[in-house]
Design a protein that fits this description.
Layout lengths: L10 H5 L2 H4 L3 H18 L5 H9 L6 H17 L24 H11 L3 H13 L3 H6 L5 E2 L2 E6 L4 E6 L2 H11 L2 H5 L21 H14 L9 H13 L4 H8 L6 H5 L4 H10 L17
Antiparallel strand pairs: 1-2, 2-3
Length: 295
């Protein structure tokens, strides 16, 4: 299918973005259709007022449809280099998508299932150790991996982070690089070639990563809509529970805003309550297991 957008200053940038170029034909069609509708409705005005007006025009549609539009447009703003002007409070709570993450046992189950496929295991372990984004995974080149280190280029701000990997993650990556990657490499053999390849021997597309992860999520019983980015939230949650400060987490993941760690971490109220009891002098046990004791 082919969609023709009206000429606009945003069109070429979005059309040439990796989000569109690496998407499947069906997904590309949907992205372009939504963006085309938005640009026509708003007369190519991307300010907050016009965006809110467009979103309100969708109120008669289902919540899931509104969420779908919301996510596509958020990606569009990111690809054309414009700041997303909406805050969750600007829209009904049902429209802002839930932000799932994996419980520790679910993450362990995912890794056990993925061990049967060297590519999947290498990618998921890398994400769960470093919190790397999906597009950063796809953009990794062979030259970015120099065991035990991997160079991560943050596409949002152009920053470069170097992470030192643990032994098991290095073993997982080496098993893939020296195994399946050699079989699929084809012409992509140089140091600037993609690190992770599709079965056709080219750069692994977004759509393949999404489908792979969705398959595993169905296997462990996670609800539909739990995407690969949930692993990044899982990593941040572990770091926050491990007493890392927000500043440390922000620096580690290359965020500009100090608010991001709080947005990503999924701390359970029960755990926070238990921690608060440990430091409360009125609770004699100090372990969070008991109730207030009037002694």
């Amino acid at each position: 299918m082919v969609v023709t957008l009206s000429p606009s200053r945003w069109y070429d940038v979005y059309l040439q973005s990796s989000r569109v170029r690496y998407a499947s034909p069906e997904t590309r069609y949907r992205y372009l259709w939504v963006v085309n509708s938005f640009l026509r409705y708003t007369d190519e005005n991307l300010d907050q007022e016009k965006l809110m007006e467009f979103m309100r025009s969708l109120e008669e549609h289902s919540t899931s449809y509104q969420r779908w539009i919301y996510q596509i447009l958020k990606g569009f703003y990111e690809e054309v280099g414009e700041k997303w002007p909406l805050h969750p409070r600007d829209l009904p709570p049902s429209v802002e998508p839930e932000r799932p993450y994996l419980e520790t046992d679910e993450a362990q189950q995912l890794m056990e299932l993925a061990k049967a496929n060297p590519l999947d295991y290498a990618i998921f372990r890398l994400v769960l150790v470093t919190g790397i984004r999906k597009r950063e995974v796809r953009d990794l080149n062979v030259s970015d991996y120099n065991p035990p280190r991997v160079i991560i280029r943050t596409r949002k701000h152009g920053e470069v982070r170097v992470r030192t990997l643990d032994v098991e993650t290095v073993e997982a990556l080496d098993a893939y690089v020296n195994g399946k990657r050699k079989w699929w490499s084809g012409k992509y053999r140089g140091r600037d070639a993609p690190l992770f390849l599709s079965s056709r021997g080219d750069r692994l597309p977004d759509s393949t990563l999404t489908k792979k992860f969705s398959t595993y999520m169905r296997m462990i019983g996670k609800p539909k809509g739990c995407g690969l980015h949930s692993l990044r939230r899982t990593v941040v949650t572990w770091e926050a529970e491990g007493k890392m400060t927000d500043m440390e987490i922000q620096k580690l993941h290359g965020w500009k805003s100090p608010m991001m760690p709080a947005i990503y971490a999924r701390l359970k109220p029960a755990r926070l309550e238990k921690e608060s009891y440990k430091v409360n002098p009125l609770i004699s046990k100090g372990d969070g297991e008991g109730h207030l004791e009037g002694k």
